[in-house]
Design a protein that fits this description.
CATH topology of the largest domain: Methylamine Dehydrogenase, Chain H
Distance between the termini: 69 Å
Strand content: 35-45%
Oligomer: single chain
Number of helices: 7
Shape: globular
Largest sheet: 6 strands, mixed
CATH architecture of the largest domain: 7 Propeller
């Protein structure tokens, strides 16, 4: 048995363990484990930076985001624009939709996304604009529009559905100009918000159903009320630190009467937020989930659970009131009562062993305003499957405003009943996993639905649907690239699967189009690696460590997952299990489960080359695979120099095939998810590590650098104002340049991590889960969980040196321009010349474009801030005064002739120049 080294002021004695054990297929494993033990390497927790000891509070998080905004405003790289790559043929998870009523007056809708902020249309979806782009979180829980003033819009942040990829909110926001601007109104520690309700006559009175922290008990949950527009809040319903409010419904005729649903839940890194005592048979069962009623505007509440399923079996609850008869109230309960045992070998949607089959979706109706309830739905297989095996992510119910007996349930599918819930049928034609439905009170056939695929509208009661594919809130998990020409990028998208797209730079690096993406090998949670020699060979890891090799050319796919010996414990792999191809030999694959496996024949056979690198604590083995390897890196310089990191906070190094594994966690934060390890391509002993504390309810950034193989670590987090950090990349051309993907965007360092600046031009605040740099094309590609895929031209960043950044003026190599094949008519389009400039201060300058005769043909302005500037010249020369240009279709494009040109930058009497050509396609 291995013992765990704990960083402390006292150090355990030196210990080395060597042994040999048999493996499958006649192979033998030889490994040695060395624990870091010398006193010089021991670090007490009190010696760690403050940010590495304590969780970042919501107040700190908001303050740090203000520092982020300040850095955005002064970033020397704010002139570098991101470009959207798509996909344009899919959307992403939408958590809520709000529609102004009556609909026919404005046709205005607001769409809230799980990671893409808020999008607004004023023309029923013909066009959409983002209206919540610069806040500390892009995770939306609920949106509400004031009935008495449509300019007042309230937003509760933090998706309350508790998905694997849910992100925390930061309280409530209010707009008084229909989404034009937002003001934070408090409740920042609530983290997840299920519902916002506005008084129909007084928009200063607002109620919020706060569900609380996802991974930790906290008192900031329950029902809150403000009567002064958000200046102050009162917690009017509180059960306990594990029980939050998940839903609210207001009486359509008496706004003093409200109904609330509370949900007692506990989530761990290794368990879903389920009602565990209901499964274990423990007497210590949850009692906090239930329905409450207030008749005095929320000042006092009483439980109204008479007739509902027993408290121990109540999971998430959704509520709605019939507008046509407000005495009728419906409750949709995720019922954890065991219906029957699962069949032997049965698994859930993610391949995990399935225990007892629960009752699942259960509908109750009250005809007396909630005083008593009657179950209307049947106990049958149909209702058991409404929520699949993850019913806690649903819980929404809607009553037709014109028919008290017609109700809709949102589960994996959208369901409708016309007999008060006794029987249901599925409504098809949309994506799955439904989270909301708006029914037009003036026309019950008009439905607006939101689900994991995006937002939809139906004009005929759900017979047909129009998909709002224009909302680009695609939720990527990862990105990788091939070496084709043109190259492709690959990524996996939550609830959609894996996709790839060709990056089209034929119209120039500044005109990369967003395109439709194609299906690719892998599932919704997959890492990808592409053979650098043969771009048709794609490796993809699926759920919990399954891995396949696919030949795109032939379509042949082969499962290559490592196997365990008969009778051995099953392997543990993360949802996004990590694997890499060796930078020295693409036939060599390293795959991380709870062990590290190596294959030297493209996955046909495997050898286990490590012990279990996690804690392997049986008390933390639940229904989510945990204590697994989440990061792997092999040195590009030295073959066999391998690093591994785990989700329970351990980092290891193996300094050669026979060197054994040494734990090098000492000095970093304990028990934080290792998100990435980068072994430097410039120095064998340098390694970078990022950690993420979100699953520990910690939002601080953790970035580390070691220059001695991990024996000592330096924190690089001080100048990263907000986290968590998901990825780090080292620039392939400039050893001083590093990139970070965080939960608010991308940061860059030009001094190996000592200081950081945001790269935010064109990228809204969003969750950046992965980054890649194409080594041939010098393009940085970001996989975001809410804004799709974006790309940034980083050639000028790569060329930055300390000398250039200290200079007053510097002009980089210019990009050639190309004239169109035809000068007039449709299809005539030039490819502009681009000029790249570094300015040492905020001075304004002029760039003169001169022809071979030294004549000035164009003058371009530049300046306004210190940093990199990109200046476009459209290849048109200035017309002489009085020269005709024409109008409309007859407008004359006064292009310069092909030839050689010089761009001369003039700033404060200093000149810098670059030569380029203008050609013709």
């Amino acid at each position: 048995m291995f013992w765990r080294f704990v960083a402390s002021a006292f150090v355990h004695p030196f210990a080395v363990i060597c042994f040999m054990t048999a493996a499958s297929d006649g192979m033998y494993l030889l490994f040695r484990v060395v624990r870091t033990t010398t006193l010089a390497l021991a670090v007490s927790l009190s010696a760690l930076p403050a940010s590495a000891q304590d969780r970042m509070s919501a107040t700190q998080r908001l303050a740090e985001f203000e520092r982020h905004r300040e850095l955005v405003a002064v970033s020397p790289f704010r002139g570098l624009p991101w470009q959207r790559l798509g996909p344009t043929n899919i959307s992403g998870r939408v958590t809520d939709i709000a529609v102004t009523e009556p609909r026919g007056e404005t046709y205005t809708m607001y769409v809230g996304a799980a990671g893409g902020g808020i999008w607004k249309t004023v023309n029923e979806g013909v066009t959409w604009i983002p209206v919540f782009t610069d806040e500390v979180t892009a995770s939306i829980g609920d949106i509400a529009i004031a009935a008495s003033d449509h300019d007042q819009v309230w937003v509760g942040t933090g998706e309350a559905n508790i998905f694997r990829s849910s992100h925390a909110g930061a309280g409530v926001y209010k707009s008084t100009d229909a989404g034009g601007s937002w003001q934070h109104m408090g409740l920042s520690e609530t983290q997840t918000i299920g519902r916002v309700v506005i008084h129909p006559l007084n928009p200063d009175v607002v109620w919020v159903a706060a569900s609380g922290h996802e991974y930790r008990d906290n008192p900031d949950r329950g029902v809150y009320r403000t009567v002064d527009g958000g200046k102050t809040w009162e917690q009017v319903l509180y059960v306990d630190a594990m029980t939050g409010a998940i839903d609210l419904a207001i009486h359509p005729e008496d706004p003093n009467t409200l109904f609330a649903a509370t949900w007692q839940r506990r989530r761990a890194k290794f368990n879903d937020p389920r009602n565990e005592p209901a499964f274990t048979g423990s007497d210590d069962y949850f009692t906090g989930s239930g329905v409450w009623k207030s008749t005095d505007g929320g000042s006092t509440w009483r439980q109204i659970n008479d007739g509902l399923v027993e408290a121990r079996y109540r999971g998430r609850i959704g509520l709605d009131i019939a507008r046509s008869n407000p005495d009728v109230v419906y409750a949709f309960v995720d019922n954890y009562e065991i219906a029957r045992d699962a069949e032997e070998g049965a698994t859930d949607a993610y391949g995990r062993p399935r225990g007892g089959i629960i009752r699942g979706a259960t509908v109750f109706r009250s005809d007396d305003g909630g005083e008593s309830w009657n179950r209307t739905s049947e106990y049958n297989a149909y209702m058991e499957n409404v929520g699949g095996t993850y019913g806690w992510v649903f819980g929404q119910i809607r009553v037709d405003p014109n028919d008290e007996n017609k109700i809709y349930l949102m589960g994996v599918q959208l369901h409708v009943s016309e007999d008060a819930g006794r029987t249901f049928e599925r409504i098809t034609g949309t994506h799955v996993d439904h989270h909301g439905l708006w029914i037009d009170p003036s026309n019950s056939e008009y439905l607006v639905n939101n689900n994991d695929g995006g937002a939809y509208v139906s004009y005929d009661g759900g017979e047909h649907w129009r998909f709002f594919v224009e909302i680009p809130v695609v939720t990527f998990f990862n990105v990788n690239y091939d070496m084709g020409d043109p190259f492709r990028v690959y990524g996996s998208v939550q609830d959609h699967g894996s996709f790839s797209a060709e990056i089209d730079m034929s119209q120039g690096r500044h005109a990369i189009p967003a395109v439709d993406w194609e299906n690719a090998p892998g599932g919704e949670g997959s890492h990808h690696a592409i053979d650098p020699i043969d771009a048709d060979i794609v490796y993809s890891a699926g759920f919990y460590g399954s891995i396949s090799r696919t030949d795109i050319g032939t379509g042949e796919s082969t499962s290559i997952m490592p196997q365990v010996e008969e009778g051995a414990d099953p392997l543990r792999g993360q949802w996004l299990a990590h694997f890499i191809l060796s930078p020295h030999n693409a036939d060599v694959i390293y795959h991380g489960m709870n062990y590290v496996f190596r294959s030297t024949d493209r996955g046909d056979t495997w050898m286990r080359i490590s012990p279990d690198l996690s804690d392997n604590d049986v008390n933390r083995l639940g229904d989510i695979q945990f204590q697994t390897i989440t990061a792997l890196a092999e040195s590009p310089i030295t073959q066999g120099l391998l690093y591994a990191g785990t989700d329970d906070g351990h980092v290891w190094v193996m300094q050669g095939p026979d060197a054994g594994w040494t734990e090098i966690t000492s000095g970093m934060h304990e028990d934080r998810f290792t998100t990435e390890i980068v072994a430097s391509q410039y120095d064998e002993s340098t390694v970078y590590v990022t950690q993420n504390g979100r699953r520990s309810d910690d939002f601080a950034p953790y970035v580390w650098r070691s220059t001695d193989y991990g024996q000592n670590w330096v924190s690089l987090s001080e100048n990263v104002p907000t986290g968590p950090v998901n990825i780090i990349r080292e620039d392939p051309e400039n050893q001083n340049v590093l990139y970070l993907g965080t939960d608010v965007g991308v940061y860059v360092s030009t001094d190996r991590g000592d200081t950081w600046m945001p790269l935010e031009n064109g990228m809204p605040s969003t969750f950046v889960h992965d980054l890649i740099i194409h080594p041939r094309e010098d393009l940085l590609v970001a996989a975001t969980h809410g804004q799709g895929m974006l790309a940034l031209d980083i050639r000028q960043l790569q060329k930055l040196t300390p000398e250039i950044m200290a200079s007053d003026v510097h002009m980089f190599e210019a990009e050639d321009g190309f004239l169109p094949a035809q000068v007039r008519g449709f299809g005539a389009q030039q490819q502009s010349a681009w000029l790249h400039v570094w300015l040492g201060d905020e001075s304004d300058g002029v760039i003169e474009v001169r022809n071979e005769a030294a004549e000035v043909v164009a003058r371009l302005s530049v300046g306004g801030f210190r940093g990199l500037h990109e200046v476009e010249w459209n290849l048109e020369q200035e017309l002489q005064p009085g020269a005709p240009r024409g109008r409309g279709f007859s407008r004359r494009r006064n292009y310069v002739p092909p030839g050689s040109y010089a761009a001369v930058l003039q700033v404060n009497g200093i000149e810098s120049s670059a030569v380029f050509t203008v050609g013709r396609r």
